Amino acid sequence: MSDNNLVISVDAMGGDNSPRVVVEGINIAHKNNKDINFLLFGDEVKVNAELKRFPQLKHCCTVVHTNEFVHNEDKPSQVIRNKNTSMYMAIDAVRQGNAMAVVSAGNTGALMAISKMILKTMHRLHRPAICTNIPHKDGMCVMLDLGANTECNAVNLAEFAIIGNILARHTLGIERPRIALLNIGAEEMKGRDEIHQAAKMIRNTHLDLNFIGYIEPHQIGEGYADVIVSDGFTGNIALKTMEGTAKLVARMLKKTIKHSIMAKIGLPFLLPVLWGMKKTMDPRKYNGAMFVGLNGLSVKSHGGTDALGFSYAVDNAAKLIRQNFVQTIREEVEHVDLDELSQEMLYDVY
Amino acid sequence: MSDNNLVISVDAMGGDNSPRVVVEGINIAHKNNKDINFLLFGDEVKVNAELKRFPQLKHCCTVVHTNEFVHNEDKPSQVIRNKNTSMYMAIDAVRQGNAMAVVSAGNTGALMAISKMILKTMHRLHRPAICTNIPHKDGMCVMLDLGANTECNAVNLAEFAIIGNILARHTLGIERPRIALLNIGAEEMKGRDEIHQAAKMIRNTHLDLNFIGYIEPHQIGEGYADVIVSDGFTGNIALKTMEGTAKLVARMLKKTIKHSIMAKIGLPFLLPVLWGMKKTMDPRKYNGAMFVGLNGLSVKSHGGTDALGFSYAVDNAAKLIRQNFVQTIREEVEHVDLDELSQEMLYDVY
Fold first, then answer.
1. The pTM is what?
2. Residue A262 vs residue B86, higher pLDDT
């Protein structure tokens, strides 16, 4: 595939302050990805008004009009069959082959439900997952599921371990990723049944996975594992707790410095360091969660992000297209005997 | 109750590096609580060897010998009926009226199981919970359950809301605590079924609770709620994620400063501030999780804490004894129509 033909479809009406933030984000992403063409789905009057501010985007953006949108408060079941929403049409462009990935900052539940319905879950997999890379003290690790599946059984978790293994190898370049199940204790009997069963399954498969057992949340930052597997509820709780805690610490530091004259004297010397750290930990840099396990590339941007954050989601989609991400996962999953996992589960039940 | 009679029973063999850390912790706690007598259960040779280092503890510590102990890797079911362990005997001292609270840094699952069996769950409650106070940007909030109940139904969660309400009023002095259920979204349909049902129950009871709906983990630090309610698995995940993230941020700051000459110049000016912040956020200060909903006071210290951390757990137990904590909860729960909650649940099912 030539890099000259990259096309990304964008739900221009998704997220807070759309389409302004979306178009500004595309403009930032365009600077680093001159080879990408964008298909923008949304209210053409509004989208064109934003595009006018960036003449350099004229040749690479095509606007497709729609006057229906998915709102944040819409239930996925309400909007899933509405083929006229910007979100639906943007995803459908991937199915039709008009785009190689879709990016949306809209309603996560709806994006997952529509992506699943249109792009379909990959052959041999039971459930797709939402996945992202997060930083730890020595680098990055892959975390999944982050919210696609509120409840998961052991087979789902074991499948996520397999998908996570592929992701860590291909997106982080780790040869033999250490895979762990997120749990509330290291001991065999701690936590929920489905986690125990999943551990057993992963150990019992003939896959050559580097499974290291359970990881507790406070160990994630220590870099003990390269792939952190959990159900979507737990993963979402952990991810949002990280976000909130990092913010709280930064806020407390600011507040304490503000009240100390001594600290104010020393602060200018530390500013470059603090700025550098803020940059390293900037959640916008990690924006662009991947929906993995679908026959097409769907990338979710944080709904409340700004233009820079949205541009990172686009960058991420472009990177995954260039890595031939979907095809790579499909090929690896084809060689994995996932039925073995289900059998394992049946033995356990009967 | 005269303050001259406070007795706390201690599982001297619980936690890493026991009984050394335990005895050193008691010595620190003793300085601020001269009125407390301690009943120490454990290997008398080892415990007395440690006590010898602190002659000032001689008059306030009584050692009761036992040569059996609960280990960290013991399953609660294996040890629950062994009446000769230091943990069992320390808890039983509360039932017998020889102590007003028990403190242990041992196996959490075993401590909860034995406490529950010996002290019994309070009349009208279905399940006890593990609870602690955590900091947010403007103060503190109460969080429960933190690990006693891996799975919870809606009634359990609603009961925790009621207990949390009492706790926030009495331990934090908040007149009308804002109560929230921990969830992965603010919208009505987000998250798990039992959470939706619990929200409905809490709203429908005739209790005058200040229920504000769902809270997402990144909002905890913002101080949106005074009581955060979740099942024990989710609460444990969130708490340990906070711990890990705070540590990661501190570690990254340290590392970045180390590599910058400028930062090293400014650092001395900021040291008092950084030390102050480290002190504020020191997890040892928040050590001593309460088991609430039992007919007796059982306090869990972190297993890996040091003497200072253990002393905070003892301090906390002493504070709760002085507040007549168990009796207060019992009286309030007696006036709460918890059966109403169960009825609500039945209506929902049938």
1. 0.88
2. B86
